[in-house]
Amino acid sequence: MSEMNSAAEAAAPHRYTATMAADIEARWQDFWDAEGTYEAPNPAGDLAGDPAVVARPKKFIMDMFPYPSGAGLHVGHPLGYIATDVFARHQRMTGHNVLHTLGFDAFGLPAEQYAVQTGTHPRVSTEANMDNMKVQLRRLGLGHDKRRSFATIDPEYYKWTQWIFLQIFNSWYDDEAGKARPIDELVAQFESGAREVPGGRDWAALSAADRADVLGEYRLAYASDAPVNWCPGLGTVLANEEVTADGRSERGNFPVFKAKLRQWNMRITAYADRLLNDLDALDWPDAIKLQQRNWIGRSEGARVDFPLGDEAITVFTTRQDTLFGATYMVLAPEHPLVEKFIPEAWPEGTHDVWTGGYATPAEAVAAYRKQAASKSDVERQAEAKDKTGVFTGEYAVNPVSGEKVPVFIADYVLMGYGTGAIMAVPAHDSRDFAFARAFELPMRCVVEPSDGRGTDPATWDDAFASYDAKLVNSASEEISLDGLGVADAKAKITEWLAARGIGEGTVNFRLRDWLFSRQRYWGEPFPIVYDEDGIAHPLPESMLPLELPEVEDYAPRTFDADDADTQPETPLSRNEEWVNVTLDLGDGPKRYRRETNTMPNWAGSCWYELRYLDPRNSQQLVDPAIEQYWMGPREGQPHGGVDLYVGGAEHAVLHLLYARFWSKVLFDLGHVSSAEPFHKLFNQGMIQAYVYRDARGIAVLAAEVEERDGAFYYQSEKVSRVLGKMGKSLKNAVTPDEICAEYGADTLRLYEMAMGPLDVSRPWDTRAVVGQYRLLQRLWRNIVDESTGEVTVTDAEPDEDTLRALHKAVDGVSQDMAAMRFNTAIAKITELNNHLTKTGGPVSRSVAERLVLLVAPLAPHIAEELWRRLGHTDSVVHQDFPVADPAYVVDETVTCVVQIKGKVKARLDVSPSITDAELEALALADAAVVAALGGAPIRKVIVRAPKLVNIVAG
At what angle do helices 860-869 and 18-35 cross, to 10 degrees? Predict the structure, then answer.
């Protein structure tokens, strides 16, 4: 085989091969870097450039932040990067000033875990991973403006992350104005008496600590005792996404408990309505918008107070019309009222099933709360067959009926939704129905069933839930809802509650405030210090960035995995010199204690689009003129934002929601003109790969699996095959380096774009890559002589067929590029290239040049090389994309089918512009049609020019 290859290379020394591709690609990558080919000028600032270029229409194109993994890239990772690069290149060629770059989201848990295991500083491993990734990405020929790249771990970057945190900390949401305002304006209102201090207190008489507490109830960034997922076995708090459905840590499989810890939070709930409403103006996939709407979870209902001694249990319900059917109440086990009213003994007549077998309410509640703390929210919300709970020993009062209703705690009620308490209407809610059956609680039908089951819930198999029925059994001396429909009953009872001061119509959101603390090392330090009274003070801007200190031990302290009564000890807390400092914050030197939590990994990706605009600015977040130019509102983009944002659908909620929140705060405070970060969102699909597993279920090396007679074997042992993710752990990863070495980067780019629609997942097949390799070889051969290396094009004009093939390709590729249909664009380029190959003679220069320009966004290296060999001295990157001549796009003739009684009797070649009348006359005069009619009378002629004539005869 090697002798055959050597002979072929000798016969065609200038053939396009992997070796030649590697040489071409390396040379042009060096050229682009040296010439700054992809640098996008700003209208002002350090990166200001040619005013003529800035005057062009702009296009800001972004990929979602990559995390620099130690495993490097596999071929699935660059799919989106290649797609945005192709789109960006096409936009440059259609006259746009294109900003396209890439940074690194480099804080996070993986680097910290590696540090714990190896003792390597997270910065060292992360920077090594970034260097490796940069080499891999460069090899793909991505046209990024490298001047604008950065990593979130750069102190000059996270200085501004900290600065934004302080803007949020020093702000409050003014409901009347519908936007954030500086906290100083709120203080001024309290001082002047324009706004009443909560509780009617005198602001001037409050201590510094009391004032801090009052402001903490308003600040958009605030510290509070928050319920968290505490994992003693790992020594850290976990996000919900890091907890499995059975209440254990995803990493290490340790028990996870609910605990209350002092944590930083972002008051994202203040923006719930705006986050919901502004989705309408965004060009996002409907599925992503739906996920955000569901996550925000807006619901209209009523707040209702159920008296309990000197207290009241407040519930939020969307079915206030069923209030007469509330026969018991349920609190979340963590509800703060639980500890306030537990009696010493069970009330007389308490059902045995209510007590859980415990001698006193205190024992029962304590045991149940411990049990509930070991479950995740997901597990607690799951539809379990057996409902669990325990009676608290107290009764509340139903405000409409005056009846006493027992108060339970149960894990299916969460503090994170509504008020952490529900009024249970078992006849009309399936979970309440199951709980009532289990605990022998009464049920009352208050919504008349329409399915013939009657009004006695004791005879039912499940609850009856309906919004289209009449109210029954819902009357007292003061109010009656009987006979009303659900909507009318809701309105009447809400008005009644409000008039008595025991409730009101209100809106509730599923969205909770954003828990913003992590008990980890590798993250942004909070720019907050505490005085001796525990009051939080923001650092002045002059002290930013607050850099992450060196520590000897990166690991959080771990505890006995089952010991829920422990507290996290953060790595930063061990650095006493850093934690305890003397600072002058404007009132003289004082001792302070630094915050020892760090920000979550989401922080740096909440605003990185802004840093791309003005990456060297050390004086302000972003120059207003630059931000306005790239991201400001414009026609069709009322909230502004990035023109195209490409990434995986897995970030549909959290990252996108958090970034939208930060943008809105910055917009309200006047720092940016864009109220939304990303105007258009596109979710690319996933490149999948086959996973092969042996009899034990262990993944084996996919590259060493053989297929024989439809079965698969690894080292002679039969293995199973399923389509799944690609990754190192599944032993099926293919690196881009491998494909580039065997075929070249342009071939890899073409293959990934040709695999199918960009938004659809597709299986990787290394054997199919060769198809795009051959396309490039044929393209090369149509322009370059493989024996001599000379350009073979001719200055002769192309024939009619070639002109039509060219302009149809130009027209189709142009439309496909604009719509990111890269797979069909490649198909049209292939069709044109094949047409030129079949003609056999030299290709016309005018056709060859336009073919190279069509290819340039997809395979930039070979396009740049051929463009230079065709005699051009300027880069292909900034050439104008070809424009189709409409005269050649339309077919010269089209085939018209003539039918008589539904059967085809003739086919006519006609002009595409033929009129209905002309086509009818032509069809009726056709000899075959005349013969088929045989003199029969024509009753009707239906004409659909230029493709159909249907004759009704007889």
Answer: 80
- Burial code (b: 16+ CB inside 10 Å, e: under 16) for 598-610 equals bbbbbbbbbbbbb
Is 574 within the bounds of a domain?
no
**Are 591 and 582 in contact, with CB atoms under 8 Å apart?**
yes
Residue 514 near residue 268 (C-beta atoms within 8 A): yes
pLDDT score recorded for residue 381: 67
How many other CB atoms are found less than 10 A from the CB of residue 595?
A: 21
Angle made by CA atoms 854, 860, 864, in degrees to the nearest 5: 90
What tokens does 87 get?
A: 């789109």
pLDDT of residue 5: 53
155-184: pLDDT as tens digits: 999 999 999 999 999 999 999 999 999 999
**Any residues with CB less than 8 A from the CB of 33 and at least 6 apart, and which?**
146
Residue 838: other Cβ atoms inside 10 A: 7
Task: Write the burial class of residue 760 (CB in 10 Å: 0-12 exposed, 13-18 middle, 19+ buried).
Answer: exposed
Using DSSP, state whether 638 is helix, strand or coil.
coil
In a domain, 392, yes or no: yes
| 144-157: burial string, b at 16+ Cβ within 10 Å, e else | bbbebbbbbbbeeb
Closest CA to 862 of 882, 841, 847, 876: 876
User: What does DSSP say about strands 589-594 and 687-693: parallel, antiparallel, or unpaired?
Assistant: unpaired
Backbone angles phi, psi at 562, to 5 degrees: -100, 5
Which tokens is 713 given? 């074997």
Structural domain total, the chain:
2
Helices (H), 13-152: 18-35, 51-54, 79-93, 109-118, 122-139
327-362 pLDDT tens trace: 999 999 999 899 888 999 999 989 999 999 999 999
Strands (DSSP E) found in 136-256: 171-174, 179-182, 221-231, 236-238
Per-residue DSSP letters for 421-481? EEEE-GGG-HHHHHHHHHTT------B--SSS--S-GGG-SS----SSSBB-S-B-SS-B-
Phi-psi category of residue 72: left, alpha or beta, with phi > 0 → left and psi -120 to 50 → alpha = left
Last residue of a domain, one of 490, 509, 528: 509
Give whole-number Cα distances, 699 to 250, 695, 707, in Å: 20, 10, 16
Predicted confidence at residue 1, as pLDDT, reads 39
Note whether residue 870 is domain-resident: no
pLDDT at 305 (0 to 100): 97
Site of tokens 């031990």: 553
Predicted local distance difference test score (pLDDT) of residue 244: 80
Domain that holds residue 394: 298-509
CA distances from 870 to 797, 799, 831, 877, 880 (A): 16, 21, 22, 15, 16
Helix and strand counts by DSSP (H, E) for the chain = 30, 30
Instruction: Report d(CA 928, CA 899) in Å as an integer.
Output: 11
The candidate with the shortest Cα–Cα distance to 391, out of 438, 426, 433, is: 438
Residues in CB range of 329: below 8 A, 6 or more apart: 306, 313, 315, 396, 405, 406, 407, 408, 421, 422, 423, 424
* Domain of residue 920, CATH code: 3.10.20.590
Residue partners of 938: CB distance under 8 A and separation at least 6? 924, 951, 952, 953
Question: In terms of C-beta distances under 8 Å and separation of at least 24 residues, what long-range contacts does 113-120 make, across chains too?
Answer: 113/251, 114/70, 115/521, 115/522, 115/554, 116/554, 116/555
Residue 636 amino acid letter: G
Q: Write the CATH number for 385.
A: 3.90.740.10
- Is 277 part of a structural domain of the chain? no
Q: Is 553 helix (H, G, I), strand (E, B) or coil?
A: coil
In this prediction, the residues of the chain whose per-residue pLDDT falls under 50 are 1-2, 4
The three state secondary structure string of 851-917 is HHHHHCCCCHHHHHHHHHHCCCCCCHHHCCCCCCCHHHHCCCCEEEEEEECCEEEEEEEECCCCCHH
227: tokens are 């319920």
* Domain finish residue from 452, 482, 509: 509
Is this prediction's pTM over 0.85? Answer: yes
Q: CB atoms < 10 A from the CB of 341, how many?
A: 18
